């Protein structure tokens, strides 16, 4: 089966923190331009249906100068002090913001859903229950210009892929610690391969959620028809009605497509089919042929979706546009199924024998 794929959308918040601040009450939260550039943004759906997220960022120059640096006077002004102010370096924080499809905040994600999180190779030490703060502790100062962030999200954690973020830091003056977040946040485009702007001042959800064209899996590959009476087939075709050809064990041989539910919201796909034996001259029927290819029976298929009659379609007449269901609230695997009803028509060459054909289904995302 042929499949075409497209992709997620995410953003984040990073803070740098002094070890003592872990037990110290914060004086206040401020915004200050710390981020210079985001790059190499990537979100990937892995084979186990978990989500891999990564991005790089660089800081503005001279942030860690302790003597008359260009940022010192600005920091004094925003926190309202005349004393020395430093950007502390040994600890870091990462804040994650998850959103529902309607843009409201999603607080259902738990620390155990976030896996393999690291900042420049330093593993996360602790993630609080509400995911408001992920703590990194390093024996070496976080004083680089360039940083790499990566983590995974468990397969069953997200129903919608919409996340926001920004980098930040912690200012220290007179025994107080001040959280400073950069107003330049980061998010991902719909394909999950480019950085986009996220506004941490408003904490408004990114405009677009990640779109993932899933890897479809067929639930059934072989349809075996019950034996038909040749005379009955000939008589039915003469009346131009054709003959219903029942499947052996029909309930177990529905046409089903299975796919990860995540990232498929509001996406439409076209299902079409071709066959090995080709179409009859009128293009109204597929063809069943015997092993020698000398005898032919025409047939057509109606695929009925019991959950949504608007998803019914007929082959080879139609190319059907469907909207995938994403009714799995745990973000796991979803499915759509159709019951095939096959009607056969005799031709001038129809005779007793064993007839076969092969159908190839193509699922294409609608741009």
Descriptive notes:
With 367 residues, the protein is mainly beta. It has 2 domains: 197 residues; 149 residues, Immunoglobulin-like. The chain has 2 helices and 24 strands. The strands form 3 sheets. Strands 2, 3, 4, 5, 6, 7, 8, 9, 10, 11, 12, 13 and 14 form a 13-stranded mixed beta sheet that branches. Strands 15, 16, 17, 19, 20, 21 and 23 form a 7-stranded antiparallel beta sheet that branches. Strands 1-24-18-22 form a 4-stranded mixed beta sheet, with no helix packed on it. A hairpin with a 2-residue loop joins strand 8 and strand 9. The N terminus is likely disordered.
Oligomer: single chain
Strand segment count: 24
Order of helices and strands: EEEEEHEEEEEEEEEEHEEEEEEEEE
Counted by DSSP, the helix tally is 2
Structural classification: mainly beta
Shape descriptor: rod-shaped
Gap between N and C termini = 20 Å
The biggest beta sheet, please? 13 strands, mixed
Overall pLDDT = 82
Uncertain runs with pLDDT below 50, 5 residues or more? 1-26
Number of domains: 2
Residue share in helices? under 10%
